[in-house]
Amino acid sequence: MCGRYSFLAPAEAVRNLFKFNGTTPNFPPRYNIAPTQPAPVVILSNDGERELILMRWGLVPTWSKGPDSRFSMFNARAETVAKKSAYRVAFQKRRCLVPVDGFYEWKTNGGAKQPYRISLIDGSVFAFAGLWEHWEDGTGSIIESFTVITTSANSLISPIHDRMPVILPPEAHSQWLAGSKSEELLAPYSATEMKAYPVDPYVNDARHDDAKCLAPAPNAAHHDVLN
Q1: What pLDDT does residue 90 have?
Q2: Which has the closest alpha carbon to 60: 1, 128, 149, 131?
Q3: 186-213, pLDDT tens digit by residue?
Q4: 167-168 and 126-136: which strand pairing?
Q5: pLDDT for 42-54, tens place per residue?
């Protein structure tokens, strides 16, 4: 599962990594992006060029009646994404890269849940594997939305949670966007290239969206940092 993430990188760094054309959407640094909120994704336009646009996090299938709070659809499981009706066509035709520089997972300790921030060791921008959809109701209402694909957790994240988002290295970006059926792209990312540390429960509230979301937990010890 992946239910929160951050994206703080300057526009030029994002353009250098994802090599998209056109303008960059006006998107301020976000410390705590949550489902149903808009976030930038990289897609292939009709002419085959990459572009960065804002979409709603939480897939709204083309054939549906619109957003439905009963179905979250902000994550899609790698094991079934090619088969489930909600994702099958998007998996074949509408893939995206989701720019991110860190994400959060919660570890259950007794009755409490401790949030962890997880990122690459160097703190650089990376990409989740995603799918996107275009929905309209015939009256002019349009929603473009995306979902993040998840897979089994690697050895770093498994003590925190049993799932993690699919992370694509830069050399796999083109292959993913082109619709490759290679199963290796949906494998857990290398644990040796990642780190995690417990953060302040302040991040638990999706209304909180500032630098305090990145702050280490007040009672965190050195051994709580995972890498």
Answers
A1: 95
A2: 131
A3: 999 999 999 999 999 999 999 999 999 9
A4: antiparallel
A5: 999 988 999 999 9
Cβ proximity of 76 and 85 under 8 Å = no
Rounded to a whole number of angstroms, the distance between the first and last alpha carbons of the chain is: 20
How are beta strands 102-109 and 5-7 bridged, if at all?
antiparallel
**C-beta of residue 121 within 8 angstroms of C-beta of residue 227:** yes
CA distances from 58 to 3, 49, 142, 159 (A): 10, 24, 14, 26
How far apart CA 103 and CA 95 sit, in angstroms, is 20
DSSP-derived secondary structure letter, 226: B
**36 torsion bin: left (phi>0), alpha (psi -120 to 50), beta (else):** left
Q: What is the pTM of this model?
A: 0.94
CA distance 86 to 83: 9
Q: Which stretches of the chain drop beneath a pLDDT of 50? A: 222-223
Q: Measured between alpha carbons, how far is 130 from 75 in angstroms, rounded to an integer? A: 9
Topology (CATH) of 5-103+123-193: hypothetical protein yedk fold (3.90.1680)
Active site residues: 2, 105
Q: Which element (helix H / strand E) includes 43?
A: strand 38-44
Angle in degrees, CA 219, 221, 222, rounded to 5: 155
